[in-house]
Amino acid sequence: MDERRATRERQDLKHHVFCFLCLLNISSVVIPVTGFALKTCKISYDIAKCDKCGLTKVPLDIPPAVKGFDLSFNSISTIKTSDFKDFFVLAWLSLSSNFISQIDNGAFSDLVSLKRLNLNNNKLVQLGEDVFNGLSNLTELRIIGNRIKVVGATSFRPLINLKFLDFSHNKLQDVKKVHSIIRHLPNLQELYIKNNHFTSFHSWELTNSSVGLKYLDVSQNPIKIFQITADVLPNLTWLNISGSSVTHQMRWDVKNKTYLGRVSTVDMTGVQMALDDIKLLLQTVNSSLTTLSMNAIKHNCAALINISCSIPTLSSLQFRKYKIKHVGSDLFKLCVNLTQLDLAYNQIENISDNTFRSLQRLRFLSLSHNRLSSVPAATRNLSALAELDLSSNRISQLECDDFANQTKLRQLNLYLNSITVLKECVFKDLVQLQVLKLQSNRLSKLNGAFKELSSFHLTNLRQLQLNNNTLTTIESGEFTGLQSLQNLTLHDNQIGKLEKGCFTGLGNLTLILFQKNEIKEDSLIPGVFNDLINLKRLDFRENKIKYDSDSALKDPPFSQLSHLEKFALPSQHRRLKAQLPRNFLQGLKNLKNLDIGNAQLVSLHKDTFTYTPQLERLDISSNEFLDFSDQLFSPIPNLKSLYISRTSLSSLDFLIDANLTKLSFLQARKNQYSIIREEVIRSVPALVYLDLQGNSFTCDCDNSFFLQWIEKSQTQVYDAYSFACNYPAKLKGEKLLSIDVRSCSVDIAFICYISTTSAILLFMVVSYTYHFLRWHLVYAYYLFLALLTDKKHKNKQVPNQYDAFISYNTHDEPWIIEELLPKLEGEQGWRLCLHHRDFEPGKPIIDNITDAIYGSRKTICVISRRYLESEWCSREIQVASFRLFDEQKDVLILIFLEEIPTCELSPYFRMRKLLKKRTYLSWQRAEKHPALFWEKLRQALRTGEDHGEGVLQVAV
């Protein structure tokens, strides 16, 4: 029982350990994914990015620890049950834009943590009964743009937690099929089923399966009648019934206003509906509607607006895609409650001055994408306006009164116009303005529009976008009125000159973008950036900054930008070789991200990064470096990402002494690396991503460590399966990972495994042997010694000096003296050899024993327990046994003074074997008949040269 209990406890322990390891394995997958070379994809921040890889099936080398899996834009046609096996922690999966026509039942059964699934734009025609098995935690499902006609009765049953379902652009054709879907979805809140060729919508087709819906989109369906006769949508708040391209009209049949009593947002863009039905529709939601999109409806604009604005709760109206060239003064007179009005895409050319007079609550007004040539005076009547969008019009000039009284305006969009000039007074009243977008105009000068003007200036402006204009110079004091400005975009201009003091007043600026201008090194005059004390990002990409020497600058241009964290200075348009002054980065003590790629640099001074100790990301790609100083990277021990692609470097050996122990990302594409040494890999222990795409490698033992490391390391090596061999010539064009380099090095781990295993097995064998066979081994050892002795002496013609050699233990000597000698020598006259009497003094004992045995006709072994414990007695019987075995003569007589069980004769295996076959003399048994004992012994001594196993054959 105890043994069975112990066995059961061991089994339980194994089970618990196994479960613990499983849990440990599952918990470990939340760590950012690393440690593999993928054939087609890459892993970034726990996301497997396999989009646009030309895949025809789901790759099998993706680690199951990823949390996101993007397989969009490939050529996958079938999803098999094994494709996503063991992806227990996957949270989102995108299979959009493939050719998937079949999904095997249970293909997603292991995705127990999946929250979002995207199957958009595939070739699915039907969904099987068990297609979504295992997705009990799915909350979002998108199946847009397929050809689905048939849905299994239980297809959606596992999706008990689904909240969002987009089934748009399929071919369901009957709302009853929608019921078969959503009746299994108790938590569904958003349902999008637009463009499914529904011709009717009846509430009885849904029954009570839709009571939890809050968002419903049935747009772009050729619905002829929308009928609700029961309260099947009691929680609906958002409804989209936008029209389709079909010309027939929709009839609205909702008699009871309480059925849609919570709907606050309606989109009826392009709906084909009689004006009376539109009135009925809006009356249905009259008490709850706040947001209405009424775009491109073929009815009188004034009538539609009047119907809409008669709803007392309406606050937001979108009225797009009407050809309203002129907006009259009475068009919005009923819209007194509106706070948002969108009139984009209406081809408006002019607006009456009093058009918006009644909209005193209006906070957002969009007039974008129209044909306005100037800012309409009507906007000046909107004293509560917070955001005004005049983008994408034909405005060429701004006047001083264009924004008069707009004291509450917070955002003004004027981009994509034709404005050429800014007047000094144009923004005078915009004291609350925070965002001003003037990009993509034709501005060549700012004319002091942003200078401080007594009490009227842009003191609260946070963001100013002036990019994509024709500015050439930033004059001194140009932005002194923008004391709160944080973001300034000046890229895509023609700026070539920065006057001293041009950034005065911008002490709160954190971002300034200068890319794609004409700035040269002499534009970076001393002190020009000194006012930008809080600047965090500065971008000078694609300018014309070039230095001919790495000599130190007298006045480093950025010495006061101590808060700068991100700085870019690549692509300077010149093909001439350039260098970077050794103190160019002086003052940037908090810089974390530096981009100086594609700057035509040929070298970097060893002191370049001395001033940037906090640097974490460095891009020096697309330059012509041949090598780096050993001390170049020493000042930046916190570096985590390094980009050195296309730099003409032939080796990564500079990393050995760089001390970049925190480097986790290294991109070194299209260089001339042929050998990656072990020391290089050891020098970057924190590396989790390595990109060496576009290099050619030496495919011999020099790269054996690198090749094995790719397959076994904790680093993801991007595109490793495409690495090609360049040397030796016979392997040119072969893939690096296909080369067998096992013969190049000794597998230490395997040797350790074999050594450890052998040692354990040897220990087990020795332990077993010692426990069960130790006496057999001792006996074998002495037999071997006897054999050697026998070989040495058997050919000696030693005459028989004695009739018998007596082998006994000294503790048995009294019996020998008192019993044996008187009978054999005294009465029977035999010549006996006794070791204490007849051995030659000074001669080795083993030689005495051997000579005595071979010099006697017989050997008499007087056996007792003390005899069995004696080493010399053991040797005597061994030598006698070898004589017996070798000569096959009757030369051995065994006398037992006491009863000894055969199991105690284990050390004398041969003796035990003989005793099982033959009889022997026993003194204890002969006590009643001593005369017979001595007679039998006398007969044994008289036995001649008979062959056979010569042991006494008659027991007494």
Automatic annotation (TrEMBL):
Gene Ontology cellular component list: plasma membrane
SMART domains listed in its UniProt record: LRR_BAC, LRR_SD22, LRR_TYP, LRRCT, TIR
Claim: Phosphoprotein is one of the keywords in the record: no
Assigned keywords, A-Z: Glycoprotein, Immunity, Inflammatory response, Innate immunity, Leucine-rich repeat, Membrane, NAD, Receptor, Repeat, Signal, Transmembrane, Transmembrane helix
Spans traversing the lipid bilayer: 15-38
Record membrane topology: Single-pass type I membrane protein
InterPro entries: Cys-rich_flank_reg_C, Leu-rich_rpt, Leu-rich_rpt_4, Leu-rich_rpt_typical-subtyp, LRR_dom_sf, TIR_dom, Toll_tir_struct_dom_sf
Domain TIR residue range list: 800-941
Compartment(s): Membrane
Entry's family note: Belongs to the Toll-like receptor family.
Protein name per Swiss-Prot or TrEMBL: Toll-like receptor 13
